Each structure stands twice: as C-alpha cells, then as structure tokens.
Amino acid sequence: MTAPTPLEEATPSRARTVIAGARHALLTLPYERLCGRVGLLDDGGEPILLVTAGSPPAHAAGSSPTARVDIHGPQGERLVLSGSLRVVPGPATDVIARLAGPGCPTPRPPLGSCGHDHDLVAIAMIVAEVALYLLTPTDPGGAAAQPSSDHDKIDHDKIDHSGTDRGGTGSADLPRPRPTAPEKATTGSSRRAPRAAGERDRGRARAAGGCGTRIDLIAYALAEPDLIAAYAPDLVAHLNTVHAEQIRRLAEHTVAVDTDQGRGARQPAGPRLVRIVRSGHARELAGAQITRLDHQGLDMWRMGPSGAEEIHLPFRAPLREPRELGREIRWLLGLV
C-alpha cells in the first residue's frame, strides 16, 4: 500500500471514491419523516437514487425542501450528502446503462428477475453540502462507538422508521455485490422488523461517526475518485468466482521472494512476497482465494497439503485504472 496522504488532501478524493464504489445508500427525508435504503449510482459525485415508482420518495422529489443521503464505504467511512431531489427524465434502465460502472471490467450487480427494472424511478440529488466521517482509533465503547453529533441523533433516532424495512417506505433497493434482486417495501410489514433495521443503521452510523470533515463543494466536484479502490470489492469477487481456476494456477506457480534479510532473519508480518516462475514442478494446491486488491498487487490465501499461507503477488507496475487489471492478469497467466 502507498503511504496515506494528509487528511486535508485525501478527503475530497476519498469522498468521491466512497460514492463511486457504493451500490446503495440510506435516504432520509426529514420533512416527510421517511428513512430507508435505496439503490445508488454515481454521476460525477452526485448520487442517482433508484426508488420504486409511485413510492413516497418518488412523490417527494421536487417538492421536499431538503434530503440527506448517507453512504458507507468499505473502510468504515460515512459520506453524508445533503441537498434537494429531482426526478431524472426517461426510463431508469437508460440511466443505469449510462452510469453503471464506466471503465470497470466487472459488471455491476444485475437488477434481478425480469420486470424489476421497469418498476424503478431515478432520482438525482442536487448536492448542497458534503461531509465525510472517518473511523478514529479508539478503544471499544469510546468516542468512535458513540453518536458523532446531535444531528445524527435527530436524523436516525427521531425519524419514524415505520414501514421502512431495508427498502424504506416504498423505496427500491438495488442489489449490492452480494444480494441478487431489488426489494419493494411492504406497507403491511410489522413495526418490529423496521425498528431492527433502524437499529442496524444507527449502529453503523455510530461506528463511522468518528472524525467528520466538511468538504468544499468545488474541491469535491474537481476531485477524482480512486476507481481501483472503489471497484476493488467487485473486482475481487469477480476474480474469485469467474476466474477461480486461473487464480489457483497463478498461486501454484509462485515462489517466495528472497528479501535479502540474511539467514535466520524473521519473516516480516503480513503476506509473504512471491513471484511467478516458469516451472514444470508447480506445487499442487487445493485452492486459492484473493482477499485484497490495490494498485500494487493481489493478496491471496493459497491452500495446500501443508496448510494455508497468505501471499502477496505484485503487479509489473501500479494499476492506473480498472481496465488494466485484465491485461495484468493475462500477462501473469502467460508466465505459467
């Protein structure tokens, strides 16, 4: 991993990275007393929300004076966007086709079974305020585990969550990389399940409520997202499922790299650095699983007769965009 940049420089880009990699968000309409999960696409830093046609959020777009969108990142970040909503003209399928992962070699999660995509409406937020909350290194039960401000208490604890189980009141939830289909809220659901969902949302908000930074709108608009970091979960899942056999072949032809530490030197903590070698005596493995991907290389576990070992396979050069990952994997496979 490269050394982190100062918080003041990293915050706008990191905020753009969070929204670029997100698949869903928590939409809050305080005046309508609505709160629920919706599908999410990134349109140059502005969220495009996917909700069920005819739902309260769809009706509120254009009339509600303010809305709030909470987006959680893979590293515990919480991006909070505030602004007004408007309905995007045209079919939601056209909006999804235009925005779903430009330059990303792995497809975005599908909409699910036939007919679901025709039930969606795309709503755009005109962003007026941006804030990013980062985890702080505190002990369990410390500051990071408490609500970050009274604003959080108002938005999450005092909003009526009735009828907002996962999809929110009448909202639609685009699948994350793990779920398989969008959900429609049911008005007849009991209050207990929505309350449980609200408790989970409040827990996540507290966990990510450490250090909040308000971001200048111009800096946010001009910042570029790190697409490798944003799409890493999708890319890892894609490699582990679609290309599992190729990844196992790569792991079978890796050998440890001599780090010139001298005989008897202790192996540094973390994955063992390896490289690909052309050999007819590749070790036989039961399997291999990628756990992490960044600009520099892949971390994976390889499982063999002697047990499991975590290794790091570096790339020839740091990746600049997701498209380069496919070329790098093909080059590595050409070595075995």
Give the number of helices. 9
Q: In CATH, what is the homologous superfamily of the largest domain?
A: Electron Transport, Fmn-binding Protein, Chain A
Shape descriptor reads elongated
Per CATH, what is the topology of the largest domain? Pnp Oxidase, Chain A
The share of residues in extended strands comes to 25-35%
What topology, given as strand order, has the largest sheet?
1-2-3-6-5-4
Please report the distance between the alpha carbons of the first and last residues: 26 Å
Unreliable residue runs: 1-9, 102-115, 139-209
Mean pLDDT: 74
Indicate the structural class.
Answer: alpha+beta
Overall CATH class of the largest domain: Mainly Beta
By DSSP, the count of extended strands is 12
CATH architecture of the largest domain: Roll
Report the biggest beta sheet as strand number plus sense, adding barrel if it closes: 6 strands, antiparallel, barrel
| Order of helix and strand elements from N to C terminus | HEEEHEEHEHHEHHHEEEEEH
What number of domains? 2
Helix content class: 25-40%
Organism: Candidatus Protofrankia datiscae
Pfam families: DUF2470
InterPro entries: DUF2470, Haem_oxidase_HugZ-like_sf
Protein name: DUF2470 domain-containing protein
Can you characterise this structure?
The structure is a single chain. A hairpin with a 3-residue loop joins strand 10 and strand 11 (297-304). This protein folds into 2 domains: 7-224, Roll (Pnp Oxidase, Chain A), CATH 2.30.110; 243-333, Split barrel-like, CATH 3.20.180. The strands form 2 sheets. It has a 6-stranded antiparallel barrel with strand order 1-2-3-6-5-4. Strands 8-9-12-11-10 form a 5-stranded mixed beta sheet. The protein has 336 residues and is of the alpha+beta class. It has helices at residues 7-21, 56-60, 92-99, 150-157, 192-207, 217-222, 227-242, 244-252, 323-333, and strands spanning 24-29, 34-43, 46-52, 67-72, 78-87, 120-134, 211-215, 254-256, 272-276, 287-293, 297-304, 307-314. The protein is 28% helix and 27% strand. The relative contact order is 0.15. The two termini are 26 Å apart. It comes from Candidatus Protofrankia datiscae.
